Amino acid sequence: IPQAPPDFKSGFIGIVGRPNVGKSTLMNQLVGQKIAITSPVAQTTRNRLRGILTTKEAQLIFVDTPGIHKPHHQLGEVLVQNAKIAIESVDVVLFVVDATTFCGAGDRYIADLLSHSSTPIILGLNKIDQQTANFLAIDESYTQLANAHQWQTVKFSAKTGTGLSELQQLLIQNIELGPYYYPPDLITDQPERFIMGELIREQILLLTREEIPHSVAISIDKVEETTTITRVLATIHVERDSQKGILIGRGGSMLKAVGSAAREQIQKLIAGKVYLELFVKVQPKWRQSRIRLAEFGYRV
Ligand code: GDP
Ligand code: K
Ligand code: MG
């Protein structure tokens, strides 16, 4: 890693917020590539993932966290715990809210959690590209929240990129002088294999029924590179035979659809031709098992 200039700043930014407010979309837009998967389904993000943005004046390391909510099973508990750790171990928290809906109980639950932390907090109003009828009243509900805690606010659209340079400037103002924590050209701390697994999971989220996504884990079993093509073998682990059936689909149609969409995404990631082979394996109760969670790369 090269030596940073004397006036260089760097810091870790925790992105927190309710599910579906656009945290992962924001991180991808900031680093300029899809490293975090996004979808209209809540709880898309499971693991802590870092996105790295290096400019001439600063290096911002974004930590994408799972949406904070009340846990129902062991995986849920791990997710909330990870979010709490994320809040304490960063230099600035960016609390993202959805500016198309009123400030609600979910936002207040997080605000409460944040108010016990000494980390500086910035309230980010996302989705300002979307037209909403009662926009002024919604805006007022978040202004009240920010005023109550004396938080700075910033408005942007993670989707279109509007307001993101202002966000960047505000974040840089809130961090200290520091070194390059990562090489300036790196955009994520996760290995390519992890992102590949996530891109497969994303297609499962998008293409199957809601009950499936929360009970799958992906393992990348083999990556073979030749001069012309990269061959990827991956297993989708599910909890029940019925889920396996849904994932494979009639005559293998679902698995085929997931495979071809994921292959396209992986081709973008590695900028080359990919041959993707998917297997489905039943692994009962993996969510309950901490050993299994660790095996699949979750921090437990
Ligand atoms: P997360 O759960 O907070 O990580 O949210 P995601 O990044 O997965 O996004 C949830 C949904 O909101 C997806 O359908 C995104 O396309 C959508 N979304 C995210 N940011 C924006 C935005 O700035 N504008 C609009 N209109 N939609 C957005
Ligand atoms: K989501
Ligand atoms: Mg997410």
Task: Give structural notes.
This protein is 36% helix and 22% strand. The chain has nine helices and nine strands. The protein has helices at residues 23-31, 74-88, 105-115, 135-149, 164-173, 192-207, 241-248, 253-270, 290-295; strands at residues 9-16, 49-54, 58-64, 92-98, 121-126, 152-155, 217-225, 230-238, 274-282. Strands 2-3-1-4-5-6 form a six-stranded mixed sheet, with helices on both faces. A three-stranded mixed sheet has the order 7-8-9. Strand 7 and strand 8 form a beta hairpin. The protein is globular. The structure holds guanosine-5'-diphosphate, potassium ion (K) and magnesium ion. Guanosine-5'-diphosphate is lined by residues 17, 19-25, 38-40, 44-45, 67, 126-127, 129-130, 157-159.
Q: Tell me how many strands there are.
A: 9
Shape, per Cα inertia axes: globular
Strand order of the largest sheet: 2-3-1-4-5-6
Oligomer: single chain
* Most strands sheet: 6 strands, mixed
Based on the model shown, name its key terms:
binds guanosine-5'-diphosphate; alpha/beta; globular; binds potassium ion; binds magnesium ion; 300 residues; three-stranded mixed β-sheet
Summarize the structure.
By secondary structure, this protein is of the alpha/beta class.
Topology, please?
Elements: E1 9-16, H1 23-31, E2 49-54, E3 58-64, H2 74-88, E4 92-98, H3 105-115, E5 121-126, H4 135-149, E6 152-155, H5 164-173, H6 192-207, E7 217-225, E8 230-238, H7 241-248, H8 253-270, E9 274-282, H9 290-295
Parallel strand pairs: 1-3, 1-4, 4-5, 5-6, 8-9
Antiparallel strand pairs: 2-3, 7-8
Helix pairs in contact: 6-8
